[in-house]
Amino acid sequence: MRRNMVPYWVTAAVIAACAIILLQMGRVPYCACGYIKIWHGQTFSSESSQHLFDWYSPSHLIHGILFYGALWVVARKLSVGWRLVIATLIEVAWEISENTDAVIEHYRAVTISLDYYGDSVVNSMADLAAMLIGFWLARKLPIWASVAIIIGFEALTIFLIRDGLALNVLMLLAPIEAVRDWQSGL
After folding, report:
1. Distance between CA 30 and CA 37 in Å, rounded?
2. Which of 23, 29, 52, 176 is the most buried (most CB within 10 A)?
3. In the predicted structure, residue 112 carries a pLDDT above the cut 80
4. CA neighbor of 34 nearest in space, from 17, 21, 50
């Protein structure tokens, strides 16, 4: 095995371990509806986060861009492959913690996601793929293009579904009733 491929094999192993852990936690492999859609566009639905991609997929792509940028700042002496391993470990930690009963119940209590029951394993794997794509884009594109992607996806999701990465983090960490009312259309 070529030495420069080791981080990519480690990344693949971390992703496989994530799937196994999520299954061991009792997460469903795919939507209980019995099928997998490429895109599920309804946010107020028990099928949200059960199919491959949804309105929250752009936030995972943004994670990849942000992880690449942050790791370029704090760990640029490491190869890109090892920085990818770190980014993947962070995203996997998020996917696992996001799918614990405590976090799912917190989401349901403080956000408009009343029908959120956690992610299917298929959705979590697609979220990881979106992060990997974001990481790759940030590596290949000029900084202004990465910033434009972040602003564009945040603006799009805020406009279309009244949610996005920034609002999701805000409502998870410091819920604001006025934001929740706006998100629910009140």
Report:
1. 10
2. 52
3. no
4. 50
